[in-house]
Hints:
Layout: H1 4-18, E1 25-28, E2 42-49, E3 52-58, E4 65-71, E5 77-81, E6 95-100, E7 105-109, E8 112-118, H2 123-126, H3 140-148, H4 155-160, H5 170-179, H6 194-208, E9 244-248, E10 251-255
Antiparallel strand pairs: 1-6, 2-3, 3-4, 4-8, 5-7, 6-7, 9-10
Enzyme class: lyase
Organism: Micromonospora fiedleri
Family: Belongs to the FPG family.
Amino acid sequence: MPEGDTVWNTARVLARALTGVRLTGSDFRVPQLATTDLTGWRVTDCASRGKHLLIRLDEPTGAAHWTLHSHLRMDGTWRVYAPGERWNARPAHLIRVVLSAATSTAVGYHLHEVALVPTAEEHRLVGHLGPDLLGTDWDPQEAVRRLADRPAENIAEALLDQRNLAGVGNLYKCELLFLRGINPRTRVADVPDLAGLVTLAHDLLAANRGRWTQSTTGSLRRGQTSYVYGRRAQPCRRCGTAIRKEELGERVTYWCPRCQPAPT
Ligand SMILES: [Zn+2]
């Protein structure tokens, strides 16, 4: 599941393959950029901002700086292929963007919100985001302030709201609430230690940065990587109670009814 750490990893893979490289071709299979051609453009940087991916490029003359934005949502991915390698990560009809260079080709599958904007206007796409959990400018106090700003919201939805803090997806949301013993329906105002929750969010994502298997338990063994996420009806690793799963807001939530008692 693409969460902040997955997007961070993706940006790193793209940066290694493309930074400083001049493109020999491009193919945009999204209507809004169907006629765009980035041949001769030079990639200067690839970065993540929360769950958004930013590929920065210079025009052939170097005169203007642009940002190619994409969002992975639930199912998007970028893959880098060597010259001549088969593009076999996903079915071809899911390809949205191809960036070709002499040394490698980056293929974006099932991307969302693909847009090309002047780099100076990146804020139009990512300016609404709260502090980036994996950004060099991560600001826990600001994340707490933004969460506390909407005290009546339930904490499960507040953690997913990227305007509060950027990078938490459904997996980390469920695991964070379990680790802090917080019921997902708790109002933000009733969470005893928002600062502790925000700090743990940062620590979990940072711990998983640089690898593709996401674990909140410390174990990388299959079936052992989460406490509650994806474990409906299985026994809680702490107390043995069956883990519950329920729709809450737009997303499903997993929790232990004993370790995370309902707010009174
Ligand atoms: Zn439990």
